[in-house]
Amino acid sequence: MKSSTAAIPLEKLIEQLPEQFTVADRELVQRAYRVAEEAHREQKRNSGEPYINHCIGIMKNPNTYRDS
What we know:
The chain has helices at residues 10-15, 23-39, 51-59. By secondary structure, the protein is mainly α. The mean pLDDT is 84.
């Protein structure tokens, strides 16, 4: 993952969600982003990158989504 000193914007994250995500799925992602953003607002990784980018990177991992 490329190091950045700026947090990944919510709008960019929403644009990158899989097409099969429903409106409810997208709203859940938005709520989770806002909670993570608040919880990790002042935290930085050793690289100087905002910690929330790590949370987003984990969420974007294709293995996170599994069909039931």
